[in-house]
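name: query_chain
kind: protein
chains: 1
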Amino acid sequence: MSSDLKMHPDEIHTNAALVRRLLAAQFPKWAGLPVRRVQSFGTDNALYRLGEDLLVRLPRIGWTVGQVEKELEWLPRLAPHLPLRVPEPLALGQPGEGYPYTWGVYRWLPGEMPSLSEVAARPELARQLAEFVLALRGCDQTDAPSAENPATDLQQLDPHVRASVETSAQLLDTDTRKQIIAVWDDTMHLPGWTVAPIWVHGDLHSSNLLWNGEHLTTVLDFSSLELNDPAIDLMAPWNAFGAEARATYREVLHPDDATWERGRARALAKALLALPYYQHTNPEIMERSWYTIREVLADAR
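structure:
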């Protein structure tokens, strides 16, 4: 994928020269370090490696503003209680040099991003990730950001999911569309989360993980961190794991049936919303979306 390919019609163009200017103006102690673009299929931020030990993260688009601030506030508080590493934000940059958003400097974390096939084939990774979710749920919630109304989220997604199925008519054959709608219709009868919300990462999938070839080492991207329905962190069983690993994840977290099914519904919704939006710009998200749809439909059958 070209590092200059835009994934959003109104996203901000960035390059290494811009990063150098921002650093020179705001963080001169780092201005002399080499800057190089990190190829990434992430949709929210452009990433630049700074020297050997640092990373610059520039939001691509307005809806991501505030993510660095959230991670600066919360990750240092949560990290000591979690079994895997999390991003280490070091500094908050301000708009400047023609760039309109706040941005961040982070520590570079070692490890490789596992492929979807590598994650799907390894039940032991599912256990590690589930244990991470359990630890996150147990963290102190004082003053934590909270979702407005977790109980109605699926109903709010309903018109967008149905519109995406119609928009993706050229990508989905008639039988697949019928199966998707049948599965989605069933989710409209699921009870929502009606007790106190709990910590959720919000975007668990293979591209937000690092590993050392055997074990998970790091969970990335806490931009969706908040108190919400625990079903949100039950999307990973369908967007990252196969059947055996999915069973392991469920065994560790032990959700009730309705919460498990809401997780499946959320995974399906996210995949369907991505299909028409990223069809021509993000092959990694398209691969994960197709994988999710196949896993959800197979599980429903």
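note: The radius of gyration is 19 Å.
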